[in-house]
Amino acid sequence: MTEHYFTREPAAQAHSREVSFSLAGRNYVLSAASGVFSAGRLDPGTAVLLRKGELPKADTQGTLLDLGCGYGPIATVLATVAPQASVWAVDVNSRARELTRENTKGLNVTVAAPEEVPEGLRFAQIWSNPPIRVGKQELHHLLLTWLPRLEPDGVAWLVVSKHLGADSLQEWLHEQGWDASRHASGSGFRVLTVKPVRSQAP
Ligand SMILES: C[S@@+](CC[C@H](N)C(=O)[O-])C[C@H]1O[C@@H](n2cnc3c(N)ncnc32)[C@H](O)[C@@H]1O
Predict the structure, then answer these.
(1) How crowded is residue 128: how many other Cβ atoms within 10 Å of its Cβ?
(2) pTM exceeding 0.90
(3) pLDDT tens-digit readout, 79-126
(4) Mutate to test the pocket of ligand 1, among 91, 128, 145 (most ligand atoms within 8 A of CB)
(5) Quick one: pLDDT at residue 1?
(6) Long-range CB pairs of 86-91, under 8 A, 24+ apart, other chains included
(7) CA-to-CA distance for 176 and 189, rounded, in angstroms?
(8) What is the mean pLDDT of residues 119-141?
(9) What angle do CA 93, 44, 37 make, to 5 degrees?
(10) In the chain, what percentage of residues exceed pLDDT 90?
(11) Cα(16)–Cα(156) distance, integer angstroms
(12) Domains of the chain (ranges plus CATH)?
């Protein structure tokens, strides 16, 4: 039976891989393995997100979330460029979490399964290349679970392929009452920002 990258406990043997990329003047070499998303190279969508999104600054503090971390490229970059921030990396796939733990050793990253994240924790930023392949209903459920955990002035950075429905997702987010905008496009992907709509002063 074929396993999806979002399988919770991949049964297939883990063939180790290495993913190298450069970003904002730094070189990264990360461990990946079969059974996790895009183990052979930095996913082109993730590359667009990290290159076109506004990465946190060196003095950024607060709590940042990498939602659906895979082997951890986003969490690794966030924690490297913003060492004072506290980064959470969350994934349902246990192999992905193991790899992220290995890749973020020495960085301020907590790796967790979704149910392990303390309920009251709020995020200044959420970064995600979300799992579109889980299906629309599950994706919507995922976003409606985590977006409400943004701080009132927080922002989520999402990358979605145009071909896989970035524009309709943006519209849906808008209908759900979020301030969803297209920040950038590149290589067939949209980088969206999603913010809570500020309540009007009476
Ligand atoms: C498109 S991949 C992105 C992986 C990684 N961030 C990257 O850029 O290479 C989406 C990830 O979301 C994870 N995922 C799927 N359903 C999830 C859920 N309900 N909660 C958290 N993560 C989930 C998958 O296991 C997968 O690793």
Answers:
(1) 25
(2) yes
(3) 999 999 999 999 999 999 999 999 999 999 999 999 999 999 999 999
(4) 91
(5) 46
(6) 86/61, 86/62, 86/110, 87/63, 88/63, 88/64, 88/112, 88/117, 88/121, 88/123, 89/65, 90/65, 90/66, 90/114, 90/117
(7) 22
(8) 96
(9) 15
(10) 90
(11) 31
(12) 16-196 (3.40.50.150)
In the block, residue with structure tokens 């679970």: 145
Q: How far is CA 40 from CA 31, 58, 79, 116, 189, in A?
A: 10, 29, 22, 28, 19
CA of 64 to the centre of ligand 1 (A): 16
Q: Reduce the DSSP state of residue 170 to 3 states and report it.
A: helix
Q: How many residues does the chain have?
A: 202
Question: Which tokens go with 157?
Answer: 């950075």
pLDDT tens profile 166-190: 999 999 999 999 999 999 999 999 9
Which of 92, 109, 132 is the best mutation target for the ligand 1 pocket, counting ligand atoms within 8 Å of the beta carbon and taking the most?
Answer: 92
- Is the predicted pLDDT of residue 135 greater than 80, yes or no? yes
Question: Residue 89: how many CB atoms within 10 A of its CB?
Answer: 30
CA distance 180 to 171: 8
Q: Using the predicted structure, report yes or no on whether residue 7 has a pLDDT greater than 90.
A: no
Q: Pairing between strand 26-33 and 16-23?
A: antiparallel
Residue range 42-78, pLDDT digits in tens: 999 999 999 999 999 999 999 999 999 999 999 999 9
